[in-house]
Amino acid sequence: MQTSSNETQTPGSPALALAGVRVLDLSRVLAGPWCTQTLADLGADVIKVERPGSGDDTRAWGPPYLKDADGADTSEAAYYLGANRNKRSIAIDIASAQGQALIRKLAAQVDVLVENFKVGDLARYGLDAQTLQADNPGLVVCSITGFGQTGPYKDRAGYDYAIQGMGGLMSVTGERDELPGGGPQKVGVAVADLFTGLYATVAILAALRHRDATGQGQTIDMALLDTQVAMLANLGANYLCTGKAPGRIGNAHQNIVPYQVFEASDGHLIVAVGNDGQFAKFSEIVGHGDWAADPRFQSNAQRVRHRAELVPLIAAALKTRPRNNWLAALEKAKVPCGAINNLTDTFADPQVQARKMTVAMEHPLSDGLKLVANPIKLSATPVSYRHPPPLLGQHTRELLAEAGLTQAEVEQLIRDQIVT
């Protein structure tokens, strides 16, 4: 593996799981950057290649923007900041012959290349996987597109929102059609992008293990639509077992009852009863221990079949006491339950704080940068937060020098506007 001098470990610091792995990141927006940020958090040296002048599209996806010391907006959108820490940025005009030569030079010195160009676009520049792997046989190339490298839709652009619809997620998300507010509903965050980024991370790690054993790189073909279909999980299995497409069911669960939102006397709570023993405890707490002996409700299968009878009984019982009263009683009995928090509540939650799910980082434009932390907790090789999300082209000179260019060559490329 190639090791960057900028990513060597400080003596005495914890080991980095992916120390020595170098990644050339030609991706933008979310799925690819989410993948490469995960690799970077684990210790990989990620080189983010951006378009001169504008950079990653998400740099402009605001407001909100990062605030400077005076409270004014900087040029860095929160969206971009959330997916690009621990990377170094180089701005290269990939449409130019000189820019393409630089990409080939960089690709010959890394372990992994991640890209999300449309199918065939990189081949037009002589930067397709086959060409790059001829110079670097151990290179792992991960392509992320909406629909993959094959199939009738391969040339279409793919966006998370459309993929949530096409992949079936919006048909099972939202309130039932016959109720107020019913109809198709997307998930509040770009889950197809995020899941694809995580699947891509897993695939890259598997390919690196194979490369380390054989010396042979490979290509990875990741598609948002494939991922969206895969993440249907139990609902996809339900359909394949029955041939019947599940519909929207609001805040309830297709396969478990009671497992949904209920209204207390002063707000809402989630009840998530996962087995018959928990249901018996739940029934006692709400003052209806007889429910657990009722043939209609004794087993989860029966509760699912008699959902329409049981849920109104539970709803009526839970409306009689305040939310926190119910939560305290249910938690004491170890019946799964929870509050419904907004993000202010979430980040103030003592468990979230105890798990250190935010991280403060120094940034060239602000001393107030906070980011959502990586959830991976490794005992021997913990994630690290080494670099804030880079400014556009912040590391261009540094990276070109590492690639072997002289200072004169770098300055000429800057004058020619090949790099910035």
From TrEMBL:
Pfam families: CoA_transf_3. The keyword Nucleotidyltransferase does not apply. Transmembrane segments: none annotated. One of its GO terms (molecular function) is CoA-transferase activity. InterPro entries: CoA-transferase_III_domain, CoA-Trfase_fam_III, CoA-Trfase_III_dom3_sf, CoA-Trfase_III_dom_1_sf. Keywords: Transferase. This is Crotonobetainyl-CoA:carnitine CoA-transferase CaiB-like acyl-CoA transferase. The lineage of its organism: Bacteria, Pseudomonadati, Pseudomonadota, Betaproteobacteria, Burkholderiales.
